[in-house]
From TrEMBL:
One of its GO terms (molecular function) is methyltransferase activity. It comes from the Bacteria. Keywords: Methyltransferase, Transferase. This is Methylase.
Amino acid sequence: MTRGTTNPNRLRRMDRWIAATHGGELRRADDPLAIDLGYGAAPWTAVELLGRLRTVAPRTHVIGIEIEPERVVAARPYTREGLAFRHGGFEVPAPGRPMLIRAANVLRQYDEPEVAAVWERLCARLAPAGGGSRGGLLVEGTCDEIGRRHVWVALGPEGPRTVTFATRLGSLRQPSDLAERLPKALIHRNVPGEPVHAFLRDFDRAWAAAAPYASYGARQRWLRAVRDLTADWPVTDSPARWRQGEVTVAWAALAPKG
């Protein structure tokens, strides 16, 4: 069981990214089911996930899953059309194959060697690829208590795809401040010789080089720094997402060594 810290809007950056990048898959699905895995002591994140996903895929329904039975009982008064709560864990007790599993701040209490097995188990529950669809999406990551800084890994049925760094730009001193929010698979790899350490080092250098743009605001400085990063790192998104204080990189470029 997690501590269950659940502040309203804590996962807004992750939710907006999911809606923007996975909304098409949800719209095309016959039965678009999303799972909020480990929603915590209060149901706010599941309620908010339903609202945000329905702006892009109105038929989406959400099931919040918690391993602590008392939290499920406390959440049930918030049940409504399209939103339900169930007791469970990584087995994901839900009908069918979800198009989305969101697991935020869940794996932080596990040991790093356990992460791969959890990822594999959750990915096996996703809707499969086929018929022009890339299949379901697992989004697993960590954020601070009020959602200013967030890093997550996106995985499909085939495994990890990307890593996204997202922040409230006005609160950022330098990009490596996000290191403390790296998901469990990466947080202990932020050491010399590991790709994620090299990426954050290069990001800080690009941020420093972009200092003259700070006079136009933190967003313009971030845009310039990310654009410079693309020369050496496989950034997979576009300026439209960079403007939101995000940057997404191919998992293969940041995956731990060994």
